[in-house]
């Protein structure tokens, strides 16, 4: 018997391609992601009426309170800022509310909550192109409606409400879900 010679190694190349997803499916998945996120808001009675309100006495307790309240009530805070902004825009004009609301909806659907690549007319649109389009549309909307000042006031008032709540809401009895605490940086993770 003669020893057999080893066969040369074979290389196989695998090419992965992205599956084109119709634009309607991208939008419906983005809407699903948005509604799922909004559904995670905490009860409003818990935000306003339950709990102890006091000023923090130490800087370390202030930082812990800031992190805990921010992560626990994040969706509620976003809704408060959105409502204050809408109220400020409707005082400018209902057209401003509609135009800016449409632009904000586009940002939410095509940038923040989109998971899949966007395909238009059989071409994949890159993320940079989407962001550039959204920025230009936002600038046009603010210029067209002359509502930049009203929008800034609305966002500022909403943020002020949220900041006051974050600082005076005692978070000692607040417990986050483990995943929320890990992603918020409040506890370490053993996962690798």
UniProtKB/TrEMBL annotation:
Name of a matching Pfam family: PRA1
Record-stated family: Belongs to the PRA1 family.
Name of the protein in its database record: PRA1 family protein
Lineage, broadest ranks: Eukaryota, Viridiplantae, Streptophyta, Embryophyta, Tracheophyta
Role summary: May be involved in both secretory and endocytic intracellular trafficking in the endosomal/prevacuolar compartments.
Keywords assigned by UniProt, alphabetized: Membrane, Transmembrane, Transmembrane helix, Transport
InterPro entries for the chain: Prenylated_rab_accept_PRA1 (IPR004895)
Protein topology in the membrane: Multi-pass membrane protein
The keyword Transmembrane helix appears for this protein: yes
Gene name, Swiss-Prot/TrEMBL: LOC104726172
Transmembrane intervals: 70-89, 95-113, 125-143, 149-168
The UniProt record lists the keyword Transport: yes
Locations listed in the record: Endomembrane system; Membrane
Top-level division of the source organism's lineage: Eukaryota
């Amino acid at each position: 018997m003669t020893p057999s010679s080893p066969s040369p190694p074979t290389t196989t190349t695998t090419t992965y391609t992205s599956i084109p997803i119709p634009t309607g499916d991208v939008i419906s998945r983005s809407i699903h992601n948005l509604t799922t996120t909004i559904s995670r808001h905490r009860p409003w009675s818990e935000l306003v009426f339950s709990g102890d309100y006091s000023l923090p006495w130490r800087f370390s307790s202030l930082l812990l309170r800031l992190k805990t309240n921010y992560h626990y009530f994040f969706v509620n805070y976003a809704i408060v800022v959105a409502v204050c902004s809408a109220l400020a825009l409707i005082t400018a004009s209902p057209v401003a509310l509609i135009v800016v609301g449409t632009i904000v909806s586009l940002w939410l659907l095509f940038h923040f909550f989109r998971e899949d690549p966007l395909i238009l007319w059989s071409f994949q649109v890159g993320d940079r192109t989407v962001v550039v389009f959204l920025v230009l549309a936002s600038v046009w909307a603010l210029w067209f409606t002359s509502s930049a000042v009203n929008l800034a006031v609305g966002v500022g008032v909403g943020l002020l409400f949220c900041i006051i709540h974050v600082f005076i809401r005692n978070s000692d009895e607040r417990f986050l879900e483990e995943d929320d605490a890990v992603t918020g940086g409040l506890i370490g993770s053993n996962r690798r």
